[in-house]
């Protein structure tokens, strides 16, 4: 039987993080915006799709890995929501072995926490490409730039923002897309299902321009076309930048950093775009090297 979605348009991803970073809430929003469910499940209500065990509903934490699937822009996305508690690290390890990409979730307040480091090392051991998503930008004390520095310093990742938040805490209003150089504001009347693109706020333009130049400088090491544009100071088209990001992510050379607030329905659709644009499909993954039990070769 012919596949509805070819392998080139399939993404097998996992969402991994420290406990309470918002993994299950993010997954529920993904399922809602992709049309998989018609009502957002909430962890505090015990109504989420992914936390199906009674113990998970009572405690508001993920205990076992749960899998689901959804569609976004003609792509099939298979998702595994993994536990964040240190006691269930083995569950994460088991899941990572079958994934082609990982969304590493970080709390905008807590940043890189102990279990964040553990799952990052696990993903590195299996050579899994990653995107980072700084969640809970609506929380008091959230600091996107500090979290990016922590990802670089504590995880040793070559992390570069592809988005910047507009405000933080109760003033978190939206995001700036550094690839398109547009400000994104979400419509809260329909739970953030739609959004509008506007010009970047004047007070943020210089910071956004500098961040984009840093991103281009990082990608120039892995893409000759981007290098040409950087050297000659010419404009880089969005599609060229997307292609360079995909190449660098697949080579585990660069980790693009997204941001948002899943509970407040901001930033999720742009993360979905990043999943289908940058993470590998099963055809991109090299064959698994095995060991013959008889020859030990």
Automatic annotation (TrEMBL):
Keywords, alphabetical: GTP-binding, Nucleotide-binding, Protein biosynthesis
SUPFAM superfamilies: P-loop containing nucleoside triphosphate hydrolases
UniProt KW Nucleotide-binding keyword: yes
Domain of life, per lineage: Bacteria
GO molecular function, one term: GTP binding
Domain Tr-type G, chain residue ranges per copy: 8-283
Keyword GTP-binding carried by entry: yes
Pfam families per record: GTP_EFTU (PF00009)
GO biological process, alphabetically ordered: ribosome disassembly; translation
Record protein name field: GTP-binding protein
């Amino acid at each position: 039987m012919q596949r509805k979605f070819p392998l080139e348009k399939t993404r097998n991803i996992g969402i991994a993080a420290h406990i309470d970073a918002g993994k299950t809430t993010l997954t529920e929003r993904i399922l809602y915006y992709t049309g998989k469910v018609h009502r957002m499940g909430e962890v505090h209500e015990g109504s989420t799709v992914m936390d199906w065990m009674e113990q998970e509903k009572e405690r508001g934490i993920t205990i076992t890995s749960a899998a689901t699937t959804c569609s976004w822009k003609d792509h099939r996305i298979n998702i595994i929501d993994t536990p964040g508690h240190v006691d269930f690290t083995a569950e994460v390890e088991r899941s990572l072995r079958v994934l082609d990409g990982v969304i590493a979730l970080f709390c905008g307040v807590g940043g890189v926490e102990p279990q964040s480091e553990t799952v990052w090392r696990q993903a590195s051991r299996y050579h899994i490409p990653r995107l980072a998503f700084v969640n809970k930008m609506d929380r008091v004390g959230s600091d996107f730039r500090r979290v990016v520095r922590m990802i670089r310093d504590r995880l040793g990742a070559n992390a570069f923002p592809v988005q910047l938040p507009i405000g933080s805490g109760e003033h978190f209003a939206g995001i700036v897309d550094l690839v398109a150089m547009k400000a994104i504001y979400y419509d809260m009347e329909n739970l953030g299902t739609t959004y509008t693109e506007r010009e970047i706020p004047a007070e943020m333009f210089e910071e956004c321009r500098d961040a984009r130049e840093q991103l281009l400088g990082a990608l120039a090491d892995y893409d000759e076309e981007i290098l040409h544009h950087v050297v000659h100071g010419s404009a880089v088209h969005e599609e060229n930048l997307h292609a360079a990001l995909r190449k660098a992510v697949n080579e585990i050379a660069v980790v693009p950093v997204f941001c948002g607030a899943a509970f407040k329905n901001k930033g999720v659709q742009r993360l979905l775009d990043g999943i289908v644009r940058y993470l590998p499909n099963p055809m991109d993954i090299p064959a698994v090297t095995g060991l013959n039990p008889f020859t030990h070769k």
